[in-house]
Amino acid sequence: MSNQTNIINRLSLLLRERKNSPNSSSYTSQLFIEGTEKIIAKIKEESEELIESAEADVLDKDSIIHEAADLLFHVMVLLANEDIDPSNILEELEKREGISGLEEKSKR
């Protein structure tokens, strides 16, 4: 398993720990305490920041990478909040591999 995949697993474990054993000094614990609405608000905020970085007049790949990481982190918080393991998302992506996006969409 690659180190990139391992970070997903390690982060998933940490998020479950923060959810199940809140720590008052943890930003992530506070997100879980504040609930789904707060987590969704953060995903919207991070999505907008990623879009703004991508639309900037001057390409700044570091900014795009930073904002994409923020967005992925908050999506993983949502998954943990809903008790969805990231492996379920990876399995869904594997199912779609090699299938036309238009074909996949028509099957929904």
In terms of topology, how is this protein built?
Elements: H1 3-20, H2 27-34, H3 36-55, H4 61-81, H5 86-96, H6 101-106
Can you tag this structure with a few keywords?
6 helices; mainly alpha; 108 residues
The assigned CATH architecture is: Orthogonal Bundle
End-to-end distance: 31 Å
Main sheet summary: none
Q: Output the helix-strand order.
A: HHHHHH
Shape estimate: globular
Helix percent band: over 70%
Number of helices in the DSSP assignment = 6
Going by helix content, strand content and strand pairing, the class is: mainly alpha
Q: What is the total domain count?
A: 1
The average pLDDT is 93
Please identify the top-level CATH class: Mainly Alpha
> For this structure, what is the CATH homologous superfamily?
MazG-like
